[in-house]
Write a structure and sequence with these properties.
alpha+beta, 4-stranded antiparallel β-sheet, 11 strands, 41% helix, globular
């Protein structure tokens, strides 16, 4: 068991946004009022018209599609500091609050006007769009080429990278979504997700004092696993055997 001293615990992001980075959004909303959503509340459904763009002020949003046979495929998540809803045509996927959320809405008409006149907003949208495109390419690789351990490692290191980009510690990540959400996102079963978390803890890659908080104890090895460079024990040869 890995015990973390209280004075060495890293900061945890994703609880709320950093206001200094996103005040430009509020410049274009009517009064800066936020819409509060309960956990598991639907924000919009696939096929709905795009009437507004929202800025995630707190909480986490899950995007998903439902197949004809009822199976659910999670396609991504949005966290505090993300903008959701912009695009062309009707919504292509469902959006649901993972936990209690606060969203700051802007009408689509205001958004289109603002993005043409506000360089800060335009740059933000361009940067987020670029990250989402790269993330889509990477996720395709994750689902088609990676083992279960590599998929979960890639998911955790992605959250770690986001922490670092926002100025938080990369060594702790908040996991607000349910295990079933992670499973549907990584194309795995809940049992496999739970078993892989346990394996990571056993081999000293992560520590968990709470199901929603992951302390990354060996970021270098976890990142190597996410790249397919080693297994949970740091051995390339054992990696494929465990994955099989």
């Amino acid at each position: 068991m890995h015990i973390l001293e209280a004075n060495t615990r890293p900061m945890i992001a994703f609880t709320k946004h950093h206001p200094s980075r996103t005040d430009f959004f509020s410049r274009h909303t009517s009064n800066g009022a936020c819409r509060k959503l309960a956990a598991r509340q639907l924000i919009w459904a696939e096929g709905d018209l795009r009437n507004e763009v929202c800025f995630v002020r707190s909480g986490t949003v899950c995007f998903y599609k439902v197949l004809m046979d009822g199976r659910r495929v999670v396609t991504g998540f949005a966290y505090p500091g993300d903008m959701i809803g912009f695009g062309i045509g009707p919504h292509q996927r469902n959006a649901e609050a993972v936990q209690c959320c606060k969203l700051e809405p802007m009408t689509m008409a205001n958004f289109q006007s603002a993005i043409a006149s506000d360089n800060d907003l335009s740059d933000f949208v361009q940067a987020q769009s670029s990250r989402e495109l790269c993330s889509s390419y990477e996720h395709l690789m994750v689902l088609t080429k990676m083992t279960a351990s590599e998929r979960l490692a890639h998911f955790l290191t992605g959250l770690s990278t986001r922490n670092r980009r926002l100025g938080y510690s990369p060594n702790s990540v908040l996991i607000p979504m349910r295990r079933v959400d992670i499973a549907d996102y990584l194309g795995l079963t809940i049992e496999t997700i739970s078993r892989t978390f346990t394996t990571f803890k056993t081999h000293g890659l992560i520590g968990m004092e709470d199901p929603c908080v992951v302390f990354i104890l060996n970021l270098e090895r976890l990142a190597a696993l996410a790249r397919g460079a080693c297994d949970e024990e740091g051995s390339v040869s054992v990696c494929r055997k465990i994955a099989a």
